[in-house]
């Protein structure tokens, strides 16, 4: 039947169908090939291997015989050929380098576009003249992207004339991007691995012993220097709870105690082992920021053990030297002082200039005496030798100390008072040293306060510990000097010559406070007065004190 319309005969329909099927099959196999490239390349984490895999794959899909991958080197601002397949010349061993923006591939990166070109033999756009020896007759180059940036160029080329179809260019672009992401991953992996290797080398070469645990306190890492501290081989130790590890019991107990401390970031302690070695241990929380919400994750512990035996030995000989020297100096000073006192009595009391000379000599001897005493006190407290603590009721101790110092204040016509609550919780302290600390504060308050001034000795308990404060309404201290007051030998510039001092009084108070596990502080306003304080840990938390 002829209805006037042109209807294709069966033959034509079959032909069209076949072409369509072929086209679909081609597309499907291209997509499959792109997928295969992506899958293969992204599984390879070794950068060179990933590059070679990518080239093999691309040549399997596009009907040409040569391909290359150049990567952007951001440091040098160049494009560097990193892999080639099917080229006549070797441009990888001595890499072909092209400035970004120069030549054809430089243009691909700079303008983020695909370039397709024919015969390149005498092409003026070649940045590397030697490349013309490749006698490339057709070439297509596509930018490779990763994380929104162009990271390189994927090129395919033919040594005979070749026409790249639009589909092939689409495939090239798709593969370039797949390869780009995979290479970026491989590059990141390589960077991470080399950083990890460096870190591991640093940890293992450290002279100090380093032990790390996971969040359950089980040993997850130990370096070479840490191995000798354990009585078993490191294979057996990894995974073991640190608190039960085969360590010297004193060391293990110290670590156990430090790991119970959840509040502070780090704890420090010294232990002396049976063999006489002294170790300084630092136990720190291992923290890292969560990838999900940046929260601080407690991820275990790091222990660093340092052999400080040589420092301890040096410390001991230093203390013994100072004590001997101080002792040897004090004796002749005592003799000289007695001689001066006798001399003063022997000479004519009306000879004012002679009396003055002797007064100066006596004052100087007394100063040297004070300096030696202060140095000895400082060394003594810092050595910890003879430091003996007991539970102390502070009220009588503070009242006694104020009474002991009252003549000094009365001589300057200064008034004073004790301000303490009826009940003060007890502290654990060495009474002798604590008294010395309060005496030093009171003596300073009197020295640096004008005659007629007022001094208060104040104590109170707070959650952070027991505070002992000495407040005066004296000359005060300039803000810029306040941070240095507790340093040895520091005196505020401009301190009057006639106010005698060694510059060690506050350093002694600080050492005493620290030996008790406490600390010192100061608040001061020039011309108005100062408050010097000590905080001591309470023997029991306030709630248990009632
Ligand atoms: P010094 O033997 O000089 O008194 P200290 O270590 O006791 O040494 O004090 C260091 C310096 O701090 C003093 O020289 C003084 O300048 C300043 N200082 C200490 N206490 C007070 C105070 N109550 N008022 C003002 N200045 C003070």
Describe this structure in words.
- This protein is an alpha+beta fold and 546 residues long.
- It has helices at residues 10-43, 47-61, 103-111, 166-205, 234-237, 249-260, 309-346, 352-383, 394-411, 431-447, 479-482, 505-515, 542-545; strands at 66-73, 78-85, 97-99, 115-117, 138-146, 149-158, 209-213, 219-222, 266-272, 278-289, 296-307, 390-392, 415-419, 427-429, 454-462, 465-472, 519-525, 529-536.
- The longest helix is centred in the middle third of the chain and has 40 residues, at 166-205.
- It is elongated and about 145 Å long.
- Bound molecules: adenosine-5'-diphosphate.
- Residues 444-445, 448, 472, 474-475, 477, 485, 490-492, 495, 501-507, 530 line the site of adenosine-5'-diphosphate (ADP).
What Rg do the Cα atoms give? 42 Å
| Biggest sheet architecture | 6 strands, antiparallel
The amount of helix comes to 40-55%
> Which CATH architecture of the largest domain is right?
2-Layer Sandwich
Q: What topology does this entry show?
A:
Layout: H1 10-43, H2 47-61, E1 66-73, E2 78-85, E3 97-99, H3 103-111, E4 115-117, E5 138-146, E6 149-158, H4 166-205, E7 209-213, E8 219-222, H5 234-237, H6 249-260, E9 266-272, E10 278-289, E11 296-307, H7 309-346, H8 352-383, E12 390-392, H9 394-411, E13 415-419, E14 427-429, H10 431-447, E15 454-462, E16 465-472, H11 479-482, H12 505-515, E17 519-525, E18 529-536, H13 542-545
The structure holds adenosine-5'-diphosphate.
């Amino acid at each position: 039947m002829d209805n006037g319309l042109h209807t294709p005969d069966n033959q034509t329909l079959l032909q069209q169908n076949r072409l369509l099927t072929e086209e679909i099959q081609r597309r499907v196999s291209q997509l499959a090939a792109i997928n295969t490239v992506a899958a293969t390349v992204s599984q390879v984490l070794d950068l060179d291997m990933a590059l070679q895999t990518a080239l093999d794959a691309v040549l399997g899909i596009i009907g040409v015989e040569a391909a290359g991958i150049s990567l952007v080197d951001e440091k040098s601002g160049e494009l560097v050929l990193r892999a080639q397949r099917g080229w006549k010349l070797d441009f990888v061993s001595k890499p072909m380098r092209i400035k970004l923006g120069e030549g054809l591939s430089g243009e691909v990166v700079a303008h983020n576009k695909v370039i397709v070109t024919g015969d390149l033999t005498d092409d003026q756009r070649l940045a590397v003249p030697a490349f013309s020896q490749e006698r490339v007759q057709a070439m297509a180059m596509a930018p490779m992207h990763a994380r929104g940036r162009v990271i390189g160029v994927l090129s395919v080329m033919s040594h005979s004339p070749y026409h790249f179809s639009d589909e092939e260019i689409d495939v090239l672009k798709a593969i370039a991007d797949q390869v780009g992401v995979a290479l970026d991953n491989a590059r990141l992996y390589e960077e991470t691995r080399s950083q990890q290797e460096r870190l591991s080398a640093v940890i293992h070469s450290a002279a100090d012993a380093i032990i790390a645990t996971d969040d359950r306190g089980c040993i997850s890492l130990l370096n070479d220097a840490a191995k000798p501290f354990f009585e078993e081989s490191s294979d057996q130790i990894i995974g073991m709870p640190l608190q039960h590890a085969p360590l010297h019991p004193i060391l293990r107990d110290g670590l156990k105690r430090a790991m119970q401390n959840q509040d502070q970031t780090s704890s420090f302690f010294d232990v002396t082992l049976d063999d006489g070695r002294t170790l300084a241990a630092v136990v720190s929380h291992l923290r890292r920021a969560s990838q999900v919400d940046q929260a601080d994750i407690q991820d275990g512990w790091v222990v660093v053990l340092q052999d400080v035996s040589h420092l301890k030995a040096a410390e001991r000989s230093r203390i013994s030297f100072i004590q001997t020297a101080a002792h040897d100096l004090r004796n002749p000073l005592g003799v000289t002082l007695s001689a001066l006192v006798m001399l003063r009595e022997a000479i004519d009391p009306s000879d004012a200039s002679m009396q003055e000379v002797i007064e100066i000599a006596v004052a100087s001897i007394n100063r040297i005496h004070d300096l030696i005493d202060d140095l000895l006190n400082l060394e003594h407290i810092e050595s910890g030798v003879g430091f003996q603590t007991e539970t102390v009721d502070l009220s009588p101790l503070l009242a006694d100390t104020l009474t002991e110092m009252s003549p000094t204040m009365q001589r300057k016509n200064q008034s004073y008072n004790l301000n303490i609550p009826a009940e003060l919780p007890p502290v654990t302290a060495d009474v002798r040293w604590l008294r010395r600390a309060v005496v030093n504060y009171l003596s300073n308050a009197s020295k640096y306060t004008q005659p007629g001034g007022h001094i208060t000795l104040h104590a109170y308990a707070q959650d952070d510990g027991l505070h002992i404060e000495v407040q005066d309404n004296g000359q005060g201290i300039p803000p810029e000097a306040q941070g240095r007051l507790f340093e040895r030998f520091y005196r505020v510039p401009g301190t009057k010559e006639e106010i005698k001092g060694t510059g060690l009084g506050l350093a002694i108070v600080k050492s005493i406070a620290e030996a008790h596990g406490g600390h010192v502080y100061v608040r001061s306003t020039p011309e108005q007065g100062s408050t010097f304080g000590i905080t001591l840990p309470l023997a029991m938390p306030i709630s248990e004190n009632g």
